[in-house]
Amino acid sequence: MKDEVKAVEPSFRPSAFRLPPSFFHLWLERATVACLFLYAAAAPHSIAGTQTAWLLAMALWAARLCVRPRPKLFRTPVDKWLLGFFVFNLGNLIHLLLVVLLIVVILRVVRGRGAVP
Fold first, then answer.
1. How big is the chain by its Cα radius of gyration, in Å?
2. Fewer beta carbons below 10 Å: N end or C end of the chain?
């Protein structure tokens, strides 16, 4: 028989040095999401409303990170598609900038100004 190593689970006995679990971080997350919905609702109507909602959401998010610092990130199959989409668009943007640069250089040469200022 192989020696099996059992995982030792932490005991959840009350201790004088441990604070009881709090759900304050969950309320901070919910308030952050609510502010982001408020941001989306205020975007077509008011710049000040969107800025206020965004700053409040960021403040709540920072407070949530202070209360419970390690949020768990779960990967989904959509993440790879989104990454590919943004990489593809970044490549298109670089291509577009190179085409604009080429057009500007050709126009400067045709007009007699030279390629280098």
1. 27
2. N
Tokens of residue 78, six digits: 């959509």
**pLDDT band at residue 7, thresholds of 50, 70 and 90?**
low
**What pLDDT does 5 receive?**
53
**Residues 62-95 as b or e (16 or more Cβ within 10 Å = b):** eebeeeeeeeeeeeeeeeeeeeeeeeeeeeeeee
pLDDT at 117: 58
> Among the listed ranges 36-45, 47-56, 64-73, which one has the minimum average pLDDT value?
64-73
Select from 30, 17, 20 the least CA-distant residue to 63: 30
